[in-house]
Structures are given as C-alpha cells and as structure tokens.
Amino acid sequence: MFENISFANPDFFWLFLLLPLAIVWYIFKQKEQTASLRISSAKGFTYSSILPKLKPGLFILRVLALGAIIVALARPQTEDISTRTKTTKGIDIVMAIDVSSSMLARDLKPNRLSALKEVAADFIKQRPNDRIGLVAYAGEGYTKTPITTDKAIVLNALSEISYGQLDDGTAIGMGLATSVNRLKDSKAKSKIIILLTDGVNNTGFIEPQTASELALEFGIKTYTIGLGTNGNALTPISYNADGSFRFGMRQVEIDEELLKDIANTTGGRYFRATDNESLEEIYDEINKLEKTEVEEFKYYRYEEKFRLWVLLAGGLLLLEWILRNTLFRSFV
Predict the structure, then answer these.
(1) Any alpha helices (H) in the chain, and if so which ranges?
(2) Dihedral sign (CA 273, 271, 150, 293)
(3) Which domains, ranges and CATH numbers included, belong to the chain?
(4) Which residues of the chain have pLDDT under 70?
(5) Which pTM value belongs to this model?
(6) How many helices (H) and strands (E) does the chain have?
(7) Secondary structure of residue 1 in the 3-state scheme
(8) Helix axis angle, 56-73 relative to 18-33, nearest 10°?
(9) Could you give the CA distance from residue 95 to residue 89 in angstroms, rounded to a whole number?
(10) 3-state helix, strand, coil in the chain (%, to 5)
C-alpha cells in the first residue's frame, strides 16, 4: 500500500505514540467500571450471548479510525518525476578519417581502419548531445556525413567507410580543409576536428599548413592522432594476381611534426596511438577534454492519497457508531 508513496507531513506520525496510551487508558477504565457480585450459585444467571466478549471491538474500531486519521494528516502522495535536458553549450565535431591503403596495416587488430571504426563508434555513442559529422580522405577528401544529432546515421555511415572509395594517397591538407568547410558556418559554442592519419602528406592541392590556418580563422580546434606502431608493420605493399593485397613488413612513417604543428596552431593536442588500447585511451581523453554543458530540468507532479484514509477512518467510525447503537446498545 505504501509502495512509491511519500509523505508531505511525516511529523504527524509521532501521534501514533498516543495510541498505546489510549489502549492503556481504556483497559484501566474498563477495570474501574467492572462491578463484582458474590453469590453462592450462578445457575440462575446463565447467559449465552457472545456480544459482551466482542464489546472491546468497538474500541479497536475507534483506534483503527484514529490511526487512519493520523496517516491522512501525514498526507500520503505519489510523486511523478519527469526530466528534460537542455544543451547549454553544444559542441560540433567532425571526425576526419584516413582511408588510404596503409590503414589496412595489421599492427592494430584486425587492422588500423577496423580498430579505428570500433573506437570511433564508442566515442560517438558517448556524445548524445553533440552534432557529429564524418570526413573520409585518402588522395582527396569528401564529406561522408554532415554534422548531425542523429547518431544512428553517423554510426551507419562510419560502418560503411572502407578502403577503395577514393584514390590512394594521404592528402592531410584535403582532409583537414574538407572538415573545416563542414564547420565554418556552425553556430556552436565549440567546434572541433579529430583528424587521424597513419602516414605522411604526399598529395592534394591544399597544404596542411594552409588548412590549419583556415581552422584557426574559424575558431576550430583540431586534435590530431598519429596511428601506427613504432618500428615496422605488416602493410599492403603490392597486389596479387587476383587483385588482393600482398602484405609485407614496412617502416611506419608518420609526420608527427606536421600533426603537432596543426594541433598547436589551432589550440588542440597531438596524440600517438601505437596499439588498440592506446587508441581507446586517446578517444577517452578527448571525450574528457571536450565536455558538453547540459542543464537538466526536473518536473514534479504529486497526486494526493489522503482521501482514501479519510474515507477509511469515516467508515470505521460509522461502523462503530452503528454497532454501538444497535447490537451493543444494551452493553454500553
């Protein structure tokens, strides 16, 4: 009966301490009112009615009614809480992903691109209040998904990213410039790019330095990630006769100085991911650095439940009055 019930005036429950006193008073009073008569034989006074034994039930009804009144005074009520969240400081994010052939290297498991997609998906799921877009680049760059709050669309687009959709190469400047183009008109309080690559800028008609200056001009912070183990990695080096890749060991080359320069110019940070675990840690770190301010509003709706207890008390008192003036009339 009291599940999910709260009380607006719980101090009235202290009145329950009076009920034991009332019971003691009733017992004491009954003893005082009971007269005794000594006779030699009670045969002529035999009376078989059970009503005198039930007479204390009238007092029990009155005590129960008082208990119900105390509960009613405490004002039992149910509470319905609804919440609404409002993003007070939104963040627009573009994730620029290198999809060149070297992203198929197997120093991360099962390969760099698959490992990145898995970690990036987790990152997206942890940003429910932000708008996120995707840019893919290799020899050139293109927008896979404009910035949107629909995470289902972004996650589906992320799963579709694969090697072979663009000419091979690593056009870091193109990937960064395309990302800047997606964010330059954004009205968000904070705009960031997460640019990941595993190589050296070797193609594209926009220089990375030029793209980073554009990002600075539009107030876009850029976090850069160099992906690849230290040393050699099993990387695609040529094609087999059936068109599949032939893998071989190759020195991992990442232009870390360039990535650091891009990050420093735009107010971001550079990270190096050498395995699956460090890649996860980097995205967790970025997630912590870029916090969205969310204001939560709570609405409370109360439904009063004291009326039931008032009716119960009234019913008990009415029953006690009826019994006292009918069945027990001769004994009160």
Answers:
(1) 18-33, 51-54, 56-73, 112-125, 151-160, 172-183, 208-217, 256-266, 276-289, 306-324
(2) positive
(3) 1-24+51-84+301-332 (no CATH), 91-291 (3.40.50.410)
(4) 1-3, 31-53, 83-89, 293-298, 328, 330-332
(5) 0.65
(6) 10, 11
(7) coil
(8) 160
(9) 19
(10) 45, 25, 30
